[in-house]
Amino acid sequence: MTVSKGGKLSAGKKREGNVFFSEDPRDFGYAKENIPCQDACPAHTNIPGYIRSIYEKHYGRAYEMNRMVNILPGVLGRICSRPCELSCRHGESDLGTSVNICHLKRSCADLKPSWHMIKEEFYAPSGKTVGIIGAGPAGLAAAHELAILGHNVTLYEAMDKPGGMLMYGIPAFRLPRDILNLEINNILRMGIDLKTGVNVGRDITLTELIDVHDAVLSTVGCQEPFNLDLPGEDLDGVYSGLDFVIRVNQGERIPVGKKVAVIGGGYTAIDCARLAIRLGAEEVSVNLRKTETFMRIDEHEKHEAKTEKIKINGLVAPFQINGTDGKVTSITFERTRLEFTKDGKGRNAVSIPDSAFAAPVDTVILAVGQTPDTGFTGGKIELNGKRIKTKAGSYETGIKRFYAAGDCVTGATNVITAIAEGRHAAHEIDAVFVGKKRITETIRTETASQTDRSRNDDFIKASVMPTLEVTKRLYALTGEVEQGYDDKIAGEESKRCYLCNLRYFIDTSQCIYCSACIDVAPRDCIKITRAVEIKKDGAYGELLSATDWSEGLAIVIDNKRCIRCGKCYEVCPMHCIHIEKVELIEQKLEA
């Protein structure tokens, strides 16, 4: 409940007019379970909020709602790994297909007006300086946040341009460089000092950096490729996946021949395969130890790869690479089968004896992942394997005033996670500088009215992303494949969102138990309830249904099942059903 019976705010709540802000664990628990898309997003983007703004054609507002936490909406709208879509309520088995949240994120960037003004809220200058090693997504996010918080930031980037994996590790046909450069410049123009071509460890030592800054943050990511230690890896025509993409992105046209075999099942592997096609290869295969089901990419990427005639071969493991006169001629695979892991939850790929076979190839690309390169630390920092070790619950390392965040700590993840980690590290550094937290998450609640969503909107099919014709895309390295939604398509897709940030609830003091709401509900989302579970963290748990009327204490709306059709609101004779908008937001506190 937002207000206690006596009209006083419950502990952890404050009111500003008709808006309530809460730090009550029950409210955080509610948002976590009932706004699943936002909870699944590592940056906690207000997804229902920006989709509603797109529906209202307020594209600039939608863009700003994204940029508040994910910094690069136009970029992420193209290359995000979409964890939100896996949790979308519309994707539940009886409801259809998840909303294309990522495509809509791109829409607000593409369709915002040309005169749109980016809005920043700055704190006063602090006089503190922070050096950030690496200008990839985590470093850019940290730099942006620290600049807003009033600190002087210097980015040290080893490459010639900022962006890290975004600039060098993702092909231009997925991420046009004009979009990337625009959003990077929107960060750098805030007074951030960018020093490119500076290799920390070679051009300047970590100790020297710490001496000239009040804090140093490592966001170097994962740049070192995994080695499979296969016989023949040193042959001409064998490349690591990341090195292959970087060289092509720098303008090199690598001669790949007619037949290319890619090893690996992630985004880099698929990018390598699609680049090979554009470089003139006639047959390209992506080869997996497990099956296509276990690939670490979304269905959109699989679909586009298959559209470009790339073969995905499952249940094969590379055994050795063969060559003549120092040049690749074939690769030998062993067939594999899947076995359950000891806990029964996962699957391992196990080689099948005497199953080896050779496939003729001109090029082999080993895209099986990367690890951090921590050589810049000079061996002075404690590592967790090859990753930088930080203190429990902190981004600070064992060296005072030296912090680390992103993939160099967690191992290879994805762009949205790296951005979230960079921002959180920035908030910790700021709290150390000023002696308290100035950015905090809170639950914002305000009274809302019935939406204009139609029940028919629930049956709109997911909008297909328009794409460049295959005949036009395969002969250019830079032609963007996905063309984006126009205003009409974006509007239709936005209608599909259930607006899970709306909470429907019954005022039990007015309810006459007529059950009209139960009768009209299209799902089992309104229940006669005998009790509510309370979790260990204080959040509300499951609603415990009564078996008959005699033990029922209240009729309650289960918002985890509710699809916000509003039918209960319309039929209630006592008008005792109310609507609130509940949002998990970041709140800036006074210095």
Report on the architecture of this protein:
The protein is of the alpha/beta class and about 600 residues long. It folds into 4 domains: about 35-120 and about 460-495, Alpha-helical ferredoxin (Fumarate Reductase Iron-sulfur Protein, Chain B, domain 2), CATH 1.10.1060; about 130-225 and about 370-435, 3-Layer(bba) Sandwich (FAD/NAD(P)-binding domain); about 255-365, FAD/NAD(P)-binding domain; about 500-585, Alpha-Beta Plaits. The chain is about 30% helix and about 25% strand. The two termini are about 30 Å apart.
Structure summarized in a few sentences:
The protein has 20 helices and 26 strands. 42% of the residues are buried.
- CATH superfamily of the largest domain, called what? FAD/NAD(P)-binding domain
Q: Report low-confidence residues grouped into runs of 5 or more.
A: 1-10
Q: Report the CATH C-level class of the largest domain.
A: Alpha Beta
Tell me the radius of gyration: 26 Å
Widest β-sheet, arrangement of strands: 1-2-21-26-22
